[in-house]
Automatic annotation (TrEMBL):
Organism, scientific name: Lactobacillus ultunensis DSM 16047
Job of this protein: Modulates transcription in response to changes in cellular NADH/NAD(+) redox state.
Gene Ontology BP, a term: response to redox state
Name of the featured protein: Redox-sensing transcriptional repressor Rex
InterPro entries to which the protein is assigned, alphabetical: CoA-bd (IPR003781), NAD(P)-bd_dom_sf (IPR036291), Rex_bacilli-type (IPR058203), Rex_DNA-bd_C_dom (IPR009718), Tscrpt_rep_Rex (IPR022876), WH-like_DNA-bd_sf (IPR036388), WH_DNA-bd_sf (IPR036390)
HAMAP family assigned to the protein according to its UniProt record, in alphabetical order: Rex (MF_01131)
Organism placement in taxonomy: Bacteria, Bacillati, Bacillota, Bacilli, Lactobacillales
Annotated DNA-binding residue span(s): 16-55
Amino acid sequence: MEKIKIPKATAKRLPLYYRYLIILNEEGKEKVSSTELSEAVQVDSASIRRDFSYFGALGKRGYGYDVKNLLTFFKKILNQDTLTNVALIGVGNLGRALLNYNFKRSNNIRISCAFDINKKITGRILSGVPVYDMDDLKQQLSDQQISIAILTVPSTAAQRTTDEMVDAGVKGIMNFTPIRLSAPASVRVQNVDLATELQTLIYFLDSDKED
Ligand code: ATP
């Protein structure tokens, strides 16, 4: 499929649209208006219309969008018709929680291998996922053609592990450590810092109280 160049903000909203369309389709709904979509995904309808315009004429005025068409379209654009294997590095508490999480239910993603340095867990299968020693990283990622990794090692090991991942050909890192990783420009890093997010929420609630 031809790659469509879309703005980053639009790209970020695609999974939101996709998830809601799955629900609509399961409910047997055939049409959806941008206003309905807007309420459900909490994105203003002007942005929705603009987002959808990047994908060509998918909607008709006063008629709404065809749910099945949109779904097929998003499925392709989000690569949902192919299963994406990702690796998990660091099988501690958070790593295990992610191993247990069923990404496959709503997205066609699965963690197909995990890595750790702790000999007590390497060589075992946890939640159906084999845990390899870090020494096997390069070989396994290359054998399984994996280019995306979730990073859940302690902060102290984050940069070192990143260098190892980059060396093993990883092109996308989901970083759960609070460390700002340095990686070549060709590697995309998505930061998910749970503690900071919570702290921000607490900060907002506290400042709401003062208003
Ligand atoms: P717990 O200590 O209970 O396992 P945790 O999530 O608090 O949970 P961390 O110290 O954050 O543990 O470590 C997470 C995991 O990362 C551990 O399983 C640890 O063995 C692993 N780990 C530590 N250093 C590295 C490294 N350099 N490469 C790969 N994995 C590592």
